[in-house]
């Protein structure tokens, strides 16, 4: 392959890469939307994603460094777009840290799984179950309506 053919191939890939990236982002968004809807509707159960936790950890440590480097480069070049991108990288680090904190709280106190299961026992009519609760298990209906069922 000659130098001219390699340059032509590289320019073709460069021209095609934004479309490929856009397709990948929209495909990922569609997957996340479908998986979330299935979990929300009860057709599947959420499972731990250790790869996601690893990505969050990497973002917590890498993104502040990346933001600092982008701020340096922005000051050297005078690029406003790069300065805004540095702010976005900092925000990404903060959001990753918040997500890790939420995962830690859930892992320590198991908050996510406890409340809906208790509610479905206390408010069966609101969770789609047709059996009538006994007098001993009845609770104030207005309290049940403010909470979600599993």
Question: Could you name the key traits of this structure?
Answer:
single chain; 150 residues; mainly alpha; 3 domains
Summarize the entry for a quick read.
This protein has 150 residues and is mainly α. Helices cover 75% and strands 0% of the residues.
Structural class: mainly alpha
The succession of helices and strands, N to C, reads: HHHHH
Question: Distance N terminus to C terminus?
Answer: 61 Å
Radius of gyration: 24 Å
**DSSP strand (E) fraction?**
under 5%
| Helix content, binned percent | over 70%
Q: Give me the number of helical elements.
A: 5
Shape type = flat
Low-confidence stretches: 135-150
* Average predicted local confidence, pLDDT: 77
Report the count of strand segments: 0
Largest sheet: none
In quaternary terms, these chains amount to single chain
Q: How many distinct folded domains?
A: 3
Give a verbal description of the structure.
- The protein has 150 residues and is mainly alpha-helical.
- The C terminus is likely disordered.
- The longest helix is centred in the first third of the chain and has 38 residues.
- The protein has 3 domains: 47 residues; 62 residues; 41 residues, no CATH class.
- It has 5 helices and no strands.
- 4% of the residues are buried.
């Amino acid at each position: 392959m000659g130098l001219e053919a390699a340059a032509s191939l590289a320019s073709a890939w460069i021209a095609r890469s934004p479309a490929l990236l856009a397709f990948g982002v929209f495909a990922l968004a569609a997957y996340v939307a479908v998986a979330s809807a299935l979990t929300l509707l009860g057709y599947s159960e959420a499972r731990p994603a250790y790869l996601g936790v690893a990505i969050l950890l990497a973002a917590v440590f890498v993104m502040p460094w990346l933001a600092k480097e982008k701020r340096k480069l922005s000051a050297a070049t005078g690029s406003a777009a790069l300065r805004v991108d540095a702010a976005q990288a900092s925000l990404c680090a903060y959001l990753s840290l918040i997500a890790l904190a939420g995962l830690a709280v859930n892992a320590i106190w198991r908050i996510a799984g406890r409340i809906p299961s208790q509610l479905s026992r206390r408010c069966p009519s609101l969770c789609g179950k047709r059996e009538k609760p006994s007098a001993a298990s009845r609770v104030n209906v207005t309290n049940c309506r403010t909470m979600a069922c599993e």
